[in-house]
């Protein structure tokens, strides 16, 4: 059985009559040692999903629906007390902005040992030692000195490492990373992604990766879920998804981003309109107003998740795209041949 | 002569201390001696990480910050020494598009007022009516409806606001537009729209751009020449195809290899140079070469002598003492400074199975195509298709096949059967084909043997330039 199994999760904000569904029936599984990606643009509900799983949404004005089973227990119906015991020890979260998620007036050391005290009962010297070991583990040089420093004294990459150290302090079985590298520079991003990969490989931690960056997904995630307007529109293994994106949105996204390794000079192929141009899922496909392939059939209720081509490749579209991404195939072909040649040489 | 020329431009911000009397205790060397040329009608891209001084340089060109020393020559006039009054009239020819489209538009002014303010200041259009006509034309050009005139910034989406920012620059008919992170605040699907708009406008109006961004893929897409900045100075400058194909400076190499590419196959076949540590403080820059503290190839000389930009190829300038030695392999990468993550990190069975599976699907598709073209008999086609398009996947699926001959073969069977009914033969042929590369695979995936990433990029660039020509 999957470690985390999310089934038809819905999150509704607002009072009666003026409700808006931020997450609209999202289902996915995360297995032990697996990296699962939730990808989408701003407003697609990816961060709200993670907050709902961690029980970090406010009680008032929020309605949760569906199930989220972590190890057989539904996270959504757990008491605050139970959740508090879970968070930090069983599941932990890494946030986007490391500066605003660390307490600015408390030294790093105290923030790390706090978790060790709460969940592992470590105190005094033992806790300090363990904290230093954790900072060392995530690649912070001179951990003993860093423990005494305040968040503003660390660089952005170092802060994110400290946050990761706090998240892995109790060897959680599930890590949720919400845009962990968005605020960082590319060279630092590469370091952090490498660290996350290591943690997953060595500790067998399950990782739920929330990001808008398809490049990050391509290098890290085993299974990818593409979200649009609160629903999963495509879900597949990463190789399958990048080779044959079938939902027009996923397909369009891959065609619209400039690639470092693609031939230059061609105009990009953007997706029309913006996320505001959408219809309610109840009336049809929310993506239809921006879609190049839409037919009248798209306006007759919510399309179901189906597996039109390969097993395990789910698409929520009545009219899925059959041709592969143009730029990507052209280039992937090139790259594979040259990589092969390069290795033989 | 170049339209815009920067000669040894320096911008140093004083660090002040003291309660009553400001004492200057030091300087932040934000921009520290930059010389570059921007040709008319071209796009010059400036890339670098946060804190490298790229934004300050852009603002210095417009004299939005004071230039400490050096020259900024626009069309023969040195802007750095121009009196403020003359500079103000000069700014019509130099416009800027800012990163945050909401923050750079006054929320209490409607679009007409925002766009006509600059025109009135520079005396463009005899009266408001004339200006309004012009604004309508520009709005149409940037893809906004003309009813936008009476609306306010908050009524627009992020992409539309950036279009307003571009329109504001365009109404003054500038020669040079400096775009500071023009798309980084926008969603991926919207980025492409704005990038295309910039491209179209350049073609139509013959504009010259200086694009400042941290996203290498975007910069490479729109720029003709790219300058890479590190800690206030240029470390490399090259035509954008060259820069990706053959980055010469160690920093550029690391930067290029760190940019994720949205393609799992390419990602796995790439080698990465992981830099350790962070950007040093520009208030206290390292001696000698600014990059020597993080450079995996650093030598004693780098600590003492600051390298100057020198020409190493056509239009390709690099500031590094040891470019040639690194190129020829005389200097080897020092592993204590940087971790090299070798290509093909697909040890896990799960990943391998996935690769084998997708390979099967793709092979089936290829087989379909090949069959349609009807060249060769059924026994050969799957092999051809695989060797041409799936060469990389083969090396990865190889070990999987040797581990468990049954599993990938049956996977491939399933997928090809469901995917391509017309090519039933391909499924049956899959078994010997996928087992065969297993013998050669281990030798090929030896990471120590070669540096595939480099050979890779050189060749793919050759390909792309060939395609361009």
UniProtKB/TrEMBL annotation, chain A:
Keywords: ATP-binding, Cell membrane, Membrane, Nucleotide-binding, Transport. The keyword Zinc does not apply. It is a peripheral membrane protein. It is found in: Cell membrane. Residues 4-254 form the ABC transporter domain. Pfam families: ABC_tran, oligo_HPY. One of its GO terms (cellular component) is plasma membrane. GO terms for biological process: peptide transport. It comes from the Bacteria. Coiled coil: none annotated. Its main location: membrane. GO terms for molecular function: ATP binding; ATP hydrolysis activity. Belongs to the ABC transporter superfamily. This is Peptide/nickel transport system ATP-binding protein. It comes from Streptomyces indicus.
TrEMBL record, chain B:
Residues 4-256 form the ABC transporter domain. SUPFAM superfamilies: P-loop containing nucleoside triphosphate hydrolases. CDD domains: ABC_NikE_OppD_transporters (cd03257). Residues 423-455 have a biased composition (Low complexity). It holds the Pfam family oligo_HPY. Keywords: ATP-binding, Nucleotide-binding, Transport. Residues 369-378, 403-422 have a biased composition (Acidic residues). Signal peptide: none annotated. Residues 369-469 are annotated as: Disordered. One of its GO terms (molecular function) is ATP hydrolysis activity. SMART domains: AAA (SM00382). It comes from the Bacteria. One of its GO terms (biological process) is peptide transport. Residues 459-469 have a biased composition (Basic and acidic residues). Belongs to the ABC transporter superfamily. This is Peptide/nickel transport system ATP-binding protein. It comes from Streptomyces indicus.
């Amino acid at each position: 059985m999957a470690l985390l199994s999310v089934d038809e999760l819905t999150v509704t904000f607002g009072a009666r009559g003026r409700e808006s569904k931020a997450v609209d029936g999202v289902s996915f599984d995360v297995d032990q040692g697996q990296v699962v990606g939730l990808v989408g643009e701003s407003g697609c509900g990816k961060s709200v999903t993670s907050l709902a799983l961690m029980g970090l949404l406010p009680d008032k004005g929020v309605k949760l629906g569906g199930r989220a089973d972590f190890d057989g227990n539904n996270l959504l119906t757990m008491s605050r007390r139970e959740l508090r015991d879970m968070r930090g020890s069983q599941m932990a979260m890494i946030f986007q902005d490391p500066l605003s998620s660390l307490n600015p007036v408390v030294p790093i050391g105290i923030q790390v040992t706090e978790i060790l005290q709460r969940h592992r009962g470590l105190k005094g010297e033992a806790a300090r030692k363990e904290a230093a070991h954790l900072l060392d583990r995530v690649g912070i040089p001179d951990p003993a000195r860093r423990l005494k420093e305040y968040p503003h004294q660390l660089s952005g990459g170092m802060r994110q490492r400290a946050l990761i150290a706090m998240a892995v302090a109790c060897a959680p079985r599930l890590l949720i990373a919400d845009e962990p590298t968005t605020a960082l520079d590319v060279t630092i991003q590469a370091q952090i992604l490498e660290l996350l990969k290591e943690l997953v490989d060595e500790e067998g931690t399950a990782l739920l990766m929330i990001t808008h960056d398809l490049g990050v997904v391509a290098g890290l995630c085993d299974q990818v879920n593409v979200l649009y307007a609160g629903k999963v529109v495509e879900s597949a293994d990463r190789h399958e998804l990048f080779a044959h994106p079938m939902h027009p949105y996923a397909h369009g996204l891959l065609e619209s981003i400039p690639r470092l390794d693609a031939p230059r000079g061609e105009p990009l192929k953007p997706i029309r309109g913006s996320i505001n141009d959408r219809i309610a899922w109840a009336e049809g496909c929310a993506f239809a107003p921006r879609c190049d392939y839409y037919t009248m059939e798209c306006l007759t209720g919510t399309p179901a998740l189906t597996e039109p081509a390969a097993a395990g490749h789910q698409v929520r579209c009545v009219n899925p795209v059959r041709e592969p991404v143009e730029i990507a195939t052209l280039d992937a072909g090139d790259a594979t041949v040259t990589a092969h040649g390069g290795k033989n040489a | 002569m170049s339209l815009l020329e920067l000669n040894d431009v320096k911008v140093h911000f004083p660090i002040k201390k003291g309660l009553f009397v400001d004492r200057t205790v030091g300087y932040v060397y934000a921009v520290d001696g930059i010389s570059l040329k921007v040709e008319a009608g071209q796009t010059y891209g400036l890339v670098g990480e946060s804190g490298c001084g790229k934004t300050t340089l852009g603002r210095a060109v417009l004299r939005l910050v004071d230039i400490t020393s050096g020259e900024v020559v626009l069309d023969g006039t040195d802007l750095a020494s121009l009196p403020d009054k003359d500079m103000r009239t000069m700014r019509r020819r130099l416009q800027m598009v800012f990163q945050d489209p909401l923050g750079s538009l006054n929320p209490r002014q409607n679009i007409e007022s925002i766009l006509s303010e600059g025109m009135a200041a520079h005396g463009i259009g005899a009266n408001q009516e004339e200006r309004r006509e012009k604004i309508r034309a520009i709005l149409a050009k940037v893809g906004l409806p003309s009813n936008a005139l009476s609306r306010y910034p908050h009524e627009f989406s992020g992409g539309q606001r950036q279009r307003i920012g571009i329109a504001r620059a365009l109404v003054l008919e500038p020669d040079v537009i400096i775009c500071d992170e023009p798309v980084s605040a926008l969603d991926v699907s919207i980025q492409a729209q704005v990038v295309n708009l910039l491209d179209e406008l350049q073609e139509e109006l013959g504009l010259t751009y200086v694009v400042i961004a941290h996203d290498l893929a975007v910069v490479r897409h729109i720029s003709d020449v790219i300058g890479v900045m590190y800690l206030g100075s240029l470390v490399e400058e090259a035509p954008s195809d060259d820069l990706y194909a053959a980055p010469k400076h160690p920093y550029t190499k690391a930067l290029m290899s760190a940019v994720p590419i949205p393609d799992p196959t390419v990602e796995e076949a790439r080698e990465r140079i992981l830099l350790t540590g962070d950007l040093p403080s520009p208030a206290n820059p390292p001696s000698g070469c600014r990059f020597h503290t993080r450079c995996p190839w650093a030598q004693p000389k780098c600590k003492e002598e600051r390298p100057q930009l020198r020409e190493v190829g056509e239009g390709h300038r690099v500031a590094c003492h040891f470019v040639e030695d690194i190129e020829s392999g005389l200097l080897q990468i020092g592993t204590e400074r940087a971790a090299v993550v070798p290509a093909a990190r697909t040890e896990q069975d799960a990943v391998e199975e996935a690769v084998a599976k997708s390979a099967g699907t793709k092979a089936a598709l290829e087989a379909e195509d090949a069959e349609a073209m009807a060249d060769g008999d059924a026994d050969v086609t799957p092999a051809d298709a695989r060797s041409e398009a799936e060469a990389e996947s083969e090396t990865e699926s190889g070990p999987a096949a040797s581990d468990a001959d049954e599993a990938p073969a049956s996977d491939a069977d399933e997928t090809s059967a469901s995917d391509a009914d017309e090519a039933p033969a391909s499924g049956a042929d899959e078994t010997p084909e996928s087992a065969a590369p297993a013998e050669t695979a281990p030798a090929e995936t030896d990471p120590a043997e070669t540096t595939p990433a480099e050979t890779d990029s050189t060749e793919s660039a050759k390909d792309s330039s060939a395609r361009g020509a």
